[in-house]
């Protein structure tokens, strides 16, 4: 049986597979970017499905649901599995954006926002810089290959039409979501702590020299200290991203195992 005959005889299964693959193109880092036109993302999802289809169908002997309601339910479940992979991957980048917001607030950039073309939303200045730098590191270190690998592995952990909603999944997602705060604070800690020490010094200076206009001196000093410390810790930030992306892949595996 050639590929065309295989596709013609299993079109319903092919569409289910396409639905799961399309899930990562909705929200995941890089693949779900709004910078990429929708028809390019759709073409990429279709191409991935063409590669996956012979392997998944031959080795798992899948039969699509016979009823319309059953098939619609299967489509929604497969879309959820793909979406789950993208969401767990995106959580790591949400922590980076949160860290940027904290640093912007401390450094005095809280009122300065820029339009982020990848999400179509307003983002803080430092947060946008850290996010875009993370995307570059993500691609250079083959992080996008991790998502593709996780998609391939998902068919081993959760076979097509084999997902089961486990009660532990909401708890796992909640744990990953709360990790946004802790990871973001780890990233923002050097800049935040340096600016805190600067504010303490300015407070002491204001008490000893009350005639000095501390607001005129303090704001530029906060900006200078924040930018200086951020520049100094950037190499360590890049190293931390490598650890974060490896943790991201492990989190995706944990989330998929909850669907077994």
Characterize this entry briefly.
The protein starts with a helix and ends with a helix. The mean pLDDT is 83.
Structure description:
This protein is mainly alpha-helical and 260 residues long. It has one domain (3-257). It has helices at residues 3-9, 11-27, 38-60, 68-107, 125-140, 143-157, 168-208, 214-257, and strands spanning 113-116, 121-124. A two-stranded antiparallel ribbon has the order 1-2. Strand 1 (113-116) and strand 2 form a beta hairpin. It starts with a helix and ends with a helix. One of its GO terms (biological process) is protein targeting. It is a multi-pass membrane protein. InterPro entries: FliR, T3SS_IM_R.
What are the SSEs and their pairings?
Layout: H1 3-9, H2 11-27, H3 38-60, H4 68-107, E1 113-116, E2 121-124, H5 125-140, H6 143-157, H7 168-208, H8 214-257
Antiparallel strand pairs: 1-2
Helix pairs in contact: 2-3, 2-4, 4-5, 4-6, 4-7, 4-8, 5-8, 6-8, 7-8
């Amino acid at each position: 049986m050639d590929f065309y005959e295989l596709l013609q005889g299993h079109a319903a299964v092919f569409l289910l597979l396409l639905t799961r693959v399309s899930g990562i193109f909705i929200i995941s880092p890089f693949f779900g970017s709004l910078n990429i036109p929708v028809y390019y993302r759709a073409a990429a999802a279709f191409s991935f499905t063409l590669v996956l289809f012979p392997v998944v169908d031959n080795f798992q002997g899948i039969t699509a649901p016979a009823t319309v309601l059953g098939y619609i339910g299967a489509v929604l479940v497969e879309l959820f599995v793909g979406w789950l992979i993208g969401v767990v991957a995106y959580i790591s980048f949400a922590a980076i954006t949160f860290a940027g917001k904290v640093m912007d607030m401390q450094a005095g950039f809280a009122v300065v926002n820029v339009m982020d073309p990848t999400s179509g939303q307003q983002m803080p200045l430092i947060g946008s810089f850290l996010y875009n730098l993370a995307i570059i590191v993500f691609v250079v270190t083959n992080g996008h290959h991790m998502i593709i690998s996780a998609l391939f592995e998902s068919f081993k952990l959760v076979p097509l039409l084999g997902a089961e909603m486990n009660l532990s999944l909401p708890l796992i997602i909640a744990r990953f979501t709360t990790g946004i705060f802790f990871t973001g604070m780890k990233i923002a800690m050097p800049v935040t702590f340096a600016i805190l020490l600067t504010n303490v010094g300015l407070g002491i200076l204001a008490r000893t020299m009350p005639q000095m206009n501390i607001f005129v001196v303090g704001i530029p000093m906060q900006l200078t200290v924040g930018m200086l410390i951020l520049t100094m810790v950037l190499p360590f930030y890049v190293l931390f991203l490598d650890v974060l992306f490896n943790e991201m892949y492990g989190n995706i595996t944990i989330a998929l195992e909850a669907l077994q």
